[in-house]
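Quick one:
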Amino acid sequence: MPGGHASFGVVIQLYHVTKRYSNGIEALRDVTLRIHEGEFVFLSGPSGAGKTTLTKLLMVMEQASEGQVLVAGRNLAVLKRSSIPYLRRNIGVVWQDFKLLPQRNVFDNVAIALEILALPRKQIARRVDQVLEMVGLERYARSMPHWLSGGEQQRVAIARALVNDPAILLADEPTGNLDPDLSVDIMRMLIDVQQRGTTVMVATHDRSLMDRFGKRVVLLNKGFLIEDGAPVDVLPGSPGQLPDLEGVEPTGPALEGGPP
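Output:
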């Protein structure tokens, strides 16, 4: 179990969080949410529901307009600028468009996060080899990204997100550009990461994946937290399709007492 991450503490908490942009649009509205260490959570909803905004708040790429966002007990609103890189080292992120460096091979794409820390080359090589083996790409270490399939490129992105041994892994639509079979493979890999002790939150609108794997679903719509629970409870209606959320009011449970 990497880094001994798994326990039962709250690792991510949002308390009455609203994110309002300068044009007046509210991407998140009064969202209250808790995610425990070692948990796997699907964050779902239609396009524009607020999934990517929530991910950016956790990465301190944006700040909440109202409410509190806590990661590992740290209030991000008062986090010193100098502390942000240390927080981000404990959070791995996988984006839909991979964000690989086209001029660098697979090994170097994964190693870059460790090179920034100025770790010894032997230590970097050992860790990169470990995560490439974890995602089944050890044979492709010297390959260039454009030589790989979409699924293989996403595996590289996952390896890069894991190389720092993060306590939290955030994946924003990681299967959005992949076919159904590759999507299932990627999701199995992320669940394996969670079973090793990492907290995993996957933003997706793919109903079939949520139905298949049966993990907790947090459902957003127009910035509101609408439902939170098992797929069978949160996602009624036709299998493989998100429910019609037009006119649905938020029913997510409030957390009494606020963050500790």
